Amino acid sequence: MELSPTSTCTGFHHIHPRPTPLSFPLTPRVSTAITSSSGGGGRGSQRSSAAAAAAPTPTPTLVDISCNDPQNGCAVDAQRRHSKPYLARKNAILQVQQSPHLDSALQRFGGVLKVQDLNVILRNFGQQSRWQDLSQLFDWMQQHSKISASSYSSYIKFTGTSLNPAKALEMYNSISDESTKNNVFICNSVLRCLVRNGKFDSSMKLFRKMKHNGLIPDAITYSTLLAGCMKVKDGYSKALDLVQELNYNGLQMDSVMYGTLLVVCASNNRCEEAQSYFNQMKDEGHSPNIYHYSSLLNAYASGGNYKKAEELVQDMKSSGLVPNKVMLTTQLKVYVRGRLFEKSRDLLVELDTLGFAKDEMPYCLLMDGLAKTGCIDEARSVFNEMKEKCVKPGGYSYSIMISSFCRGGLFEEAKELAEEFEAKYDKYDVAISNAILCAYCRAGEMESVMRTMRKMDELAISPDYNTFHILIKYFCKEKLYMLAYQTMEDMHRKGHQPAEELCSSLLFHLGKIKAHSEAFSVYSMLKYSKRTMCKAFHEKILHILIAGKLLKDAYVVVKDNAKFISSAAIKKFAKSFVKLGNINLINDVLKVIHGSGYKIDQRLFQMAVSRYIAQPEKKDLLLQLLQWMRGQGYVVDSSTRNLILKNAHLFGQQFIAEILSKKHMMSKALKSHWMTKG
DNA sequence: GTAGGGTTAG
What we know:
Elements: H1 11-15, H2 28-37, H3 43-47, H4 49-54, H5 62-67, H6 73-80, H7 84-98, H8 102-109, H9 115-127, H10 131-143, H11 149-161, H12 165-173, H13 178-181, H14 184-196, H15 200-212, H16 219-228, H17 235-248, H18 255-267, H19 271-283, H20 290-303, H21 306-318, H22 325-337, H23 341-353, H24 361-372, H25 376-388, H26 395-407, H27 411-424, H28 430-443, H29 446-458, H30 465-477, H31 481-493, H32 500-512, H33 516-527, H34 536-547, H35 551-561, H36 567-580, H37 586-595, H38 602-614, H39 619-632, H40 638-646, H41 648-651, H42 653-659
Helix pairs in contact: 7-8, 7-9, 9-10, 9-11, 10-11, 11-12, 11-14, 12-14, 14-15, 14-16, 16-17, 16-18, 18-19, 18-20, 19-20, 20-21, 20-22, 21-22, 22-23, 22-24, 23-24, 24-25, 24-26, 25-26, 26-27, 26-28, 27-28, 28-29, 28-30, 30-31, 30-32, 31-33, 32-33, 32-34, 33-34, 34-35, 34-36, 35-36, 36-37, 36-38, ...
This protein binds one DNA strand of 10 nucleotides through α9, α11, α14, α16 and α18.
């Protein structure tokens, strides 16, 4: 049973390549209008080579020429207007960029190239994803001291793009010059690199360190960090902190930051806040683009606020923007979330007419909404409708339907659909794998469960919380309790916290099969997780530990949770411990029990004394016990006293005289009684 | 002469 793939990468990333940016399916006439009014900062158009070529360049710079085709007439004209050294550098740039042997090219042309020329080449390598050459050139620049702050920021940026945040960080840490290390461009590059690679917490930690070391953050710094809040738990409050800090530093939000903030609000169910940021943005003179509108619309979806959504779409149309596929699909989401299934269906028809329903996504939205409202039959018919329309179903629609069937108790149908998926498709990720696993588990298909687990292993799909949960529940159902336990251990190691009821059920069964220490381990997993634990849990594990004679562990449980444990259970524990537990801890146990408000009865004292008599070398402990008893007002009853006297030879006369002093004599008032809560 | 964002599904 291998549930912990050795690979640390997740299968999800293998299966889903980085999505390519969506293009707007708009008519050319409208699209021009949108591009000019989109107000997105114009970053994209600045970087497009078409725009660069079209831009008027009265006095071409080295950068411009290096990007042009040398055969181009314009460039030839430009060449004539420049000095020889200039042309030599321009030529050297091209030679180095185009040379198949970077080493020798640098040897030949390196002397001519200035730092800014090398930076041009560096960025060129980065843009072309020539990572090997990028590193090699950067090393060369370092070795020849032809390096500037720009070299660092570009290099770090591209190292982040090539998904190597550790390398970028290492580079940054290796900078010894303080002013270079505090250069805002370089810092922004490093932070961006961490954020991009999903290391938001690290980026915030580094950010604090940078500020401490003298960085003065600018708007881009905050914008970069804000972007990290989008895919992070509790991103909204983190984003708010950043906004507060940037305002405190006298910086202003721009349309990029507002865009990011709207996404954060939408994914954190902050509908009203999204709206207020949207308005604030407009008040400050930034005109929203289609992304701003879509994000706000998405925020409305979480509240199912379809009236506002419709107003927003109207508002957007009157501002001259045309709803695109994403916008309309998001509007469908609003209707689905608002349970307006008639409107949803109508909109789906409209999407289809516009050619926007060619993939499964809008169908998935509707199916999922229907299924979660209990309308499984309707969901099934949308699924079939989608298949009839030759829309290719994929992992999403299958996982929605399989999970719905499982939830609705239609296990056979779920299993059949899982088999259908396996027969027709070979794209797996953790979500579809979980749905398939769930179906096979509920249908009791052990062979298929095991096969699916092996498949996940082979494809390096990391099991997630749900995977573990499904499997543990299933193994319990099949009475494979040790397997369930091992799976739970694995789950715990991976940082997932199992739910209380699952722990409770497994713990109970482990106790039954006398897997006492395993049961205690389950108890500990729950106890040291952030989850709540029901009070009865402590007593449950206490009985198991007593049965397994794991008395030291039982002692810890009692010590920490006595107030949640019944007096009968405490009594049972005390008896077991004094009888069989570690002799060195007997006094401590008695003190703890007394300290939690229980009176200790004479039979227990007598048992303790018997233990000490059996091991006379522990006579100091006996003495301590008797002294403690005296201090707490307990007395030694006659039978215990007789027991000690009978064994007087083991302890010595003086000892006996001390312990049998008058204060220890039995008083009638304290006689009798088993422990009673004080 | 360098650095920032993005909308929809399980």
